[in-house]
UniProtKB/TrEMBL annotation:
It catalyses: a long-chain fatty aldehyde + 2 NADPH + O2 + H(+) = a long-chain alkane + formate + 2 NADP(+) + H2O. Belongs to the sterol desaturase family. InterPro entries: CER1-like_C, Fatty_acid_hydroxylase, NAD(P)-bd_dom_sf, Sterol_Desaturase_Related. Its EC number is 4.1.99.5. This is aldehyde oxygenase (deformylating). Homodimer. It comes from Aegilops tauschii subsp. strangulata (Goatgrass). Pfam families: CER1-like_C (PF12076), FA_hydroxylase (PF04116). It comes from the Eukaryota. One of its GO terms (molecular function) is aldehyde oxygenase (deformylating) activity. The keyword Disulfide bond does not apply. Residues 58-198 form the Fatty acid hydroxylase domain. GO terms for cellular component: endoplasmic reticulum membrane.
Length: 548
């Protein structure tokens, strides 16, 4: 669990500060170049010398560690802290970059301390190029690790091997220093805090708790899938920064595309469902899992069974973990694929985990976007799961629904579901011409530019079609896919759900969250229960889930 992930995302460092984050690299290069210039023999070092490693390790423990400790405590004196070290501590929430975020004087001190073991090994005639790289890179890695804000060490490690507590610090250990500023001053070895009497005794208990937070089982799972090869790079474990902004195709993705393509074949062949991200709501862990399949797989007839197997495996895994609700995203609940989740519920009648498509709330979001006073709408995809529910709901409100479908049989089936007095409000249309005068279009099926031309100027296109239609008409407006904003107390939202703003999720995801928060006992699979549209909408608002 990121120890303070929420704050780091809401309090980004000012831009001017970011610029100076890598300047120390230039300083270190200058120091190394000076050394090479002053001691020409350094230019002819061998590739590797094991004796040099021993000398450097000895000097690191005997000199670099204690000297860093002393210097760090010195920098916490009132005078030096205010003028120098306060900058490093201004990042209350450390990130790996915080490791390199300090004033030039501190970097000079750190650079010299880092050079010391290398200089010692060279002076003993045991220096090597390999040692220089190994030591500097390990040093840098450990600094970044200590500031990474994610607990990496297994929870039980320091209990079973207590001596390790004095040899290696942890991200939790250094975060305690960043927040409290009174303990845990060491470079990498807590031994020196112990010797100096500045060790926070809670460090390992907290480390264990932070780690346990990462290992805890979720209560809610949103089971997504990858959209396409480009989007597959929009996940925190590939690029945290990129994943923290809404997805859009960017130039820097292009050279990475072949690698992502290769990755696609690998996950298709070998992978099972994996975790993409998570957040906390009302003290409960919510995770987003991805089925290792991409959007186009869902359109390959021979891939259908494999996809259902993957979803079933994920649901059964969730069942074993004690997850309460699994919400199926996007194409994972496709009617043609598994009847909107019905397949799994029928196959496993004793499931304790609730399987939810969340589309009742999707319908509610679309319906609530239709302005009051609307008397007539035109709808494509009208006989789909969402189309049917929207049509039946609207005809109850005495709104005339022109349902675009060539199948009279499917139309009549839906019409018969409406109460006798409402049936007159459902009208079958077979041509786009019929919609020329209607300014409210609800689009559930892809529309070509030619088809969009039939809309009169000023028409608004509401949509529930995936992928969304392209806005060809400048004189019309286009709605976005139904989405809702998670409650304000959602914590740790480090990444964006596809192209949505951070904290906003697709309506079906929100529908699953409502299902969990309300503790509904039923599975929400198959056809949408029109009577429940208002119920879930009210429940969502009650829990602070808001329309966007
Ligand atoms: Zn620090
Ligand atoms: Zn400090």
């Amino acid at each position: 669990m990121p120890i303070y992930a929420t704050e780091v995302l809401t309090n980004p460092a000012p831009a001017a500060v970011c610029v100076s984050r890598d300047n120390f690299l230039i300083l270190q290069i200058m120091m190394a170049a000076t050394a090479l210039y002053a001691f020409p023999s350094l230019r002819h070092l061998p590739g590797w010398n094991t004796g040099g490693l021993a000398v450097a390790a000895l000097l690191h423990v005997a000199a670099t560690e204690p000297l860093f400790y002393a210097a760090h405590r010195g920098f916490h004196g009132a005078h030096l802290f205010a003028r120098y070290h306060a900058l490093h501590h201004s990042n209350k929430v450390p990130t790996p970059f915080t490791a390199g975020f300090a004033t030039p004087l501190e970097h000079l001190v750190l650079g010299l301390l880092m050079a010391l073991p290398l200089a010692g090994a060279c002076a003993a005639g045991l220096g090597s190029v390999g040692l220089a790289f190994a030591y500097v890179l390990s040093f840098d890695f450990l600094r970044a690790m200590g500031h990474c804000n994610v607990e990496l060490f297994p929870g039980g490690l320091f209990r079973s091997l207590p001596f390790l507590r004095y040899l290696i610090y942890t991200p939790t250990y250094h975060t305690i220093h960043h927040t409290g500023k009174k303990a845990n001053f060491c470079l990498f070895m807590p031994l020196f805090d112990r010797l100096g009497g500045t060790l926070d005794p809670e460090s390992w208990e907290l480390q264990r708790k932070n780690r346990a937070g990462m290992d805890e089982a979720p209560d809610f799972v949103f089971l997504a899938h990858v959209v396409d090869v480009m989007q597959s790079m929009h996940v925190p474990f590939v690029m945290r920064t990129f994943a923290s902004t809404p997805f859009a195709v960017r130039a820097f993705l292009l050279p990475l595309w072949p690698i992502a393509l290769l990755f696609m074949f690998m996950v298709w062949a070998w992978s099972k469902t994996f975790i993409i991200s998570y957040y906390h709501l009302r003290g409960k862990l919510h995770q987003i899992w991805a089925v290792p399949r991409y959007g186009f797989h869902y359109f390959l007839p021979f891939a259908k069974d494999g996809i259902n197997d993957q979803i079933e495996l994920a649901i059964l895994r969730a069942e074993r973990m004690g997850v309460k609700v699994v919400s199926l995203a996007a194409l994972n609940k496709n009617e043609a694929l598994n009847g909107g989740g019905t397949l799994f519920v029928n196959k496993h009648p004793d499931l304790r985990v609730r399987v939810v498509h969340g589309n009742t709330l999707t319908a509610a979001v679309i319906l609530n976007e239709i302005p009051k006073g609307t008397t007539e709408v035109f709808m494509t995809g009208a006989t789909s799961k969402l189309g049917r529910a929207i049509a039946l709901y609207l005809c109850r409100k005495k709104i005339r629904v022109m349902m675009m479908t060539l199948s009279t049989e499917r139309f009549q089936k839906i019409q018969k579901e409406a109460a006798a007095e409402d049936q007159q409000y459902l009208v079958q249309v077979t041509k786009f011409q019929s919609a020329e005068q209607c300014k409210t279009w609800i689009v559930g099926k892809w529309l070509s530019p030619r088809e969009q031309r039939w809309a009169s100027p000023g028409t608004h296109f509401h949509q529930f079609v995936v992928p969304p239609i392209l806005g060809f008409r400048r004189d019309c407006t286009y709605g976005k896919l139904a989405a809702m904003r998670l409650p304000k107390d959602a914590r740790g939202l480090g990444s964006c759900e596809f192209s949505l703003e951070r904290g906003v999720v697709h309506a079906c995801h929100a529908g699953g969250v409502v299902h969990f928060l309300e503790g509904y006992a039923h599975h929400e699979v198959g056809a949408i229960d029109v009577d429940r549209i208002d119920v879930v909408w009210e429940a969502a608002l009650k829990h602070g889930i808001r329309p966007v």
